[in-house]
Structures are given as C-alpha cells and as structure tokens.
From TrEMBL:
<protein>
    <recommendedName>
        <fullName>Glycosyltransferase</fullName>
        <ecNumber>2.4.1.-</ecNumber>
    </recommendedName>
</protein>
<keyword id="KW-0328">Glycosyltransferase</keyword>
<dbReference type="InterPro" id="IPR035595">
    <property type="entry name" value="UDP_glycos_trans_CS"/>
</dbReference>
<feature type="region of interest" description="Disordered">
    <location>
        <begin position="62"/>
        <end position="84"/>
    </location>
</feature>
<keyword id="KW-0808">Transferase</keyword>
<comment type="similarity">
    <text>Belongs to the UDP-glycosyltransferase family.</text>
</comment>
<dbReference type="Pfam" id="PF00201">
    <property type="entry name" value="UDPGT"/>
</dbReference>
<dbReference type="InterPro" id="IPR002213">
    <property type="entry name" value="UDP_glucos_trans"/>
</dbReference>
<dbReference type="InterPro" id="IPR050481">
    <property type="entry name" value="UDP-glycosyltransf_plant"/>
</dbReference>
<dbReference type="GO" id="GO:0035251">
    <property type="term" value="F:UDP-glucosyltransferase activity"/>
</dbReference>
Length: 475
C-alpha cells in the first residue's frame, strides 16, 4: 500500500496570508494528504491573527497545527533586524530567525514529502535544502502580479529607477497589460532597505520546485500563458506554476449582528465597504466617505478603523477601537441609521459578501478580498491602498473587467462626490448591472475551475504527481 503523503505548510505572518493557506490545507486533506501547519506567531501580538489562527485550528481538526516557539533573541538575524525601524525589514528578519524552530519541527516529523511556504518565507528554502526536501511557494495573490514580480529583480538590477523615468512611465512586461510604474508597490519604488529586501524575496521565487497560485486560469489567461512560456524570469528558468484557486474561506461568525441587520435589507441593496486587515484612512478621508455615502442615498455596511498616526506603519502596533462619533461627521450615524450600519474595525467579510442583501463591494483590492468578491458575484469598486493592490486594481479593471476604479485613490483624497457617483452608478445604472452580469459569469467559471474536471482541480492533481516524482529525486 502507498504511504500517505505528508506536507508542511508555512504561512508566515498576516491574516491575508494565513487564511488562504488554511484553505490550501483543506484541499490537501481532501486529496488524502496529511498536513501540518507551522504557525509563526507575529512578534507584535495581533488579535486578528491570533483569532484567525484559533478559528482555523478549531474548525479543521484533521489538520495538525504546530505553533513554532519564538526565535532565540540571541539569533543574529532577529536581533540585528529588530533594531531596524522598517516594519517590512523587521518582518523578514523575524521570519529568517524562525528558520531554527522550523528546522526543529521538520526534523521531528516522521516523513515529510514537501514544504509549502508563503511568499515572504523564502529563507526557509535554505532549511529545505539542508533537509533535502522539495519546497514550493504558495503565492497568495494573482498570476498577473506574480508575472510582474518575477521580472522585477532583474529589471531593477539593470537600472530601472522611477526617479529617472518619471511617475507616468509605462511598464510593458510579459504577462501584464501596460501599467504605470507608479502602480508598483511603494516599498519597491522608494529604493529603501525594505525594497532591496523585498527584491531578494522575489528573486528566490525562481529557486523553488514550483509555485502554487491562488487564481484560476481563465481569470488571468495572459499572465498564465507568459508564466508557462517562461517569459517572466529573464535568463533563469521559471518553476512550474499551478493555478489552483480560487481558495476562499467558507466564512466565520454566522451570528454576527451585521448579518442580522442584512437579513432585514432588500436583496442586492447594500454596498459593503471594507479595506482588508490593515487598511486605514485619515479622519478627513473618512468624513468625505461618509458625506458621499449619505448623499448617494444607498444602503451601506461600512467597516471603519481608527486612523494610523503614521500611515506608512502598516504592520505596526494594533489599533484602538475607533470612536465613531468623533471620527465621522456630526449627526451622520443618526441621520443614516435606517439605511446604514458602521462596524468598528472588523466584519465577517466572507459572510457579508455572500449575503443576498449585499449588492456591491468597495474594496482595497487585496487579493483575498478580490477572490471573495468574485465568489460572491459582486461588482468591485476599487480603492487600492498598499502592497500590490494598485497593480491588482489595474488588472481587475482592465484585464478581468470585474470592477471600476474610485478616482482619486492615488491623489490626496477621494472626494465625497466621487464616492456618491460611483456608489450610485454601481447600484442603479445599466453599467452597474452589466458589471453584475459579468461577475455572475466569472463566478460561474471560478466554481467550475474548482470542481473535478476543472482547471484548478487538474492543476492540483498535477502538483501532487510532481511531489511524487520529486520524492524519487529527494529519497
Ligand atoms: N477580513 C475580514 N474582515 C474585515 C477585514 C478583512 O474578514 O473586516 C478578511 C477578508 O475577508 C480577507 C482578509 O481578511 O480574507 C484580507 O485579505 P486581503 O488579501 O483582501 O487583504 P490584506 O489584509 O492582506 O491587505
């Protein structure tokens, strides 16, 4: 009898990275593979991350969760980087220092066939090599950004600089429609220490045995073709790419008060506004949004977080609960209480999106949110904020044609009139209806891709076969 295959998944830090990795764990177990999830807890306690990890462990009894002990403070890689103030550099240094506990875990498990790591856990490749273990990436964003990112280390090494090319310079890279260089992640554009660290992370991608991508082929055909044809990693070979998504969480707190509120609203009538696990706005921007929503006359469900003192501190300290009365225009909550609900800090997003009363999604274009919007069949109003979200916005609007942008996202402020106009457009106009029809069709394709016989199902089976063949090379 064949022995049961066994894999270790290493999700790194952040809710947006953990959630889809847990969905991946479920797919492995559905295919009869034993799964251990190696959890690195964030150095700064994050209640969102801890809650997501606890929920994942409680609802997936067939997956073995192992919390890695924190790194030894004497570990040079953690202590030197801790002194660096940049949160990205700190995060990467911390993950590097987690190599020791990860190595201990991998050694303690009886027989592991493969290690699957998050995009930021590239330093674990060294551990896998030491232990003669095949290692794969799970890229929790889309194929289009992957195509661009694989190209970036060389592009930057050969002298590309935004300062010399200008904000409006257009990049034409294999696998992506032309887009403005200024849509690249800020961390890469500013030439900082963090940018260099991220480029190293991206460089390591091509060293893996393969890359699993949380997308489905028909959503990103141009990118998938370019990746397959090896056009995205100049001068090096591209590892096999497996599009196995969309892997989207099944939801959480079904009893949340906002779901009971949605029960009382008409079908397809509510605009949901939510900006990922980290998105925040200055008070002035929150006020503009509130005015726009009020003037639109539409029903809305809006997740509001406290503003950050330092907007660049996206991975920083947890935020206090917002004081809604103080943050939003005077009387706003009272005047809109019959048709609007404002939630503090967090919503059960997947359940909200899938509720029949929800009709459109104002999103920061995080990839999980994008896929969750697709699986709920909702038109997207795109308001990108950080990381690769501005690129996602380009692909969502121009390639996938499943959303429109909020003008002003890349300026100082999105004006109240823009919020009012776009929200009304998506809920009331023929254009909005056409977008909704398009989403229904894309959702249908996504569902088919995941079923037996679909492209994502087939890609996962092919990936499992690849692990088998690697076992012969890594006896
Ligand atoms: N999320 C949620 N409630 C919130 C905000 C976010 O459940 O109020 C979830 C959302 O459903 C998604 C994840 O957090 O699964 C955010 O991931 P995404 O890739 O969209 O953005 P990130 O947080 O990584 O920027």
């Amino acid at each position: 009898m064949n022995k049961q295959k066994s894999v270790v998944l290493y999700p790194g830090l952040g809710v947006g990275h953990l959630t889809p990795m847990i969905e991946l764990a479920k797919v492995f177990t559905q295919h009869g593979v034993a799964v251990t999830v190696a959890l690195a807890e964030p150095p700064t306690k994050s209640s969102d991350f801890s809650a997501a990890a606890a929920r994942a462990a409680a609802s997936n009894p067939s997956v073995n969760f192992h919390v890695l002990p924190p790194p030894d403070p004497a570990d040079s890689s953690s202590s030197s980087d801790d002194t660096h103030s940049d949160p990205v550099v700190q995060m990467l240094g911390y993950l590097k220092a987690m190599n020791a506990p990860l190595r201990d875990l991998l050694r303690s498990l009886p027989a592991v066939d493969a290690l699957v790591v998050d995009m930021f856990c590239g330093d674990a490749l060294g551990v896998a090599a030491e232990l003669n273990l095949p290692v794969y990436y799970f890229y929790a964003s889309g194929a289009s950004t992957l195509a661009v990112f694989l190209n970036l280390p060389r592009m930057m090494a050969t002298g590309f600089q935004l300062e010399t090319t200008g904000d409006d310079s257009v990049l034409s890279l294999p696998g992506a429609p032309p887009f403005k260089a200024s849509e690249l992640p800020e961390v890469i554009l500013n030439g900082s220490q963090a940018g260099k660290a991220v480029l190293r992370v991206l460089y390591l991608f091509a060293e893996a045995s393969g890359i699993l991508v949380n997308t489905f082929e028909s959503l990103e055909t141009r990118a998938v073709r370019a990746l397959r044809d090896g056009l995205c990693v100049p001068d090096r070979s591209t590892p096999p790419v497996y599009c196995i998504g969309p892997l989207v969480s099944g939801g959480g707190d079904k009893e949340h008060e906002c779901l009971r509120w949605l029960d009382m609203q008409p079908d397809n009538s509510v605009v949901f506004l939510s900006f990922g696990s980290l998105g925040t706005f200055p008070k002035k921007q929150l006020e503009e949004m509130a005015i726009g929503l009020e003037k639109s006359g539409q029903r809305f469900l809006w997740v509001v977080r406290s503003p950050r003192n330092n907007p660049g501190d996206a991975l920083g300290q947890p935020l206090p609960e917002p004081d809604l009365e103080a943050l939003l225009p005077e009387g706003f909550l009272e005047r809109t209480k019959d048709r609007g609900l404002v939630l503090k800090s967090w919503a059960p997003q997947v359940d909200v999106l899938r509720h029949k009363a929800t009709g459109a999604f104002v999103t920061h274009c995080g990839w999980n949110s994008t896929l969750e919007g697709i699986m709920a069949g909702l038109p997207l109003l795109c308001w990108p904020l950080y990381a690769e979200q501005r690129m996602n916005k380009v692909f969502i609007v121009e390639e996938m044609k499943i959303g429109v942008e909020m003008n002003g996202y890349d300026e100082e402020m999105v004006k109240a009139e823009e919020v009012e106009t776009k929200v009304k457009w998506v809920m009331e106009s023929q254009g909005g209806q056409a977008l909704r029809d398009r989403l229904a069709e894309v959702k249908d394709r996504a569902v088919k891709a995941l079923k037996e016989g679909g492209s994502s199902y087939a890609a996962f089976v092919e990936f499992l076969k690849d692990i088998d063949s690697m076992a012969d090379l890594h006896p």
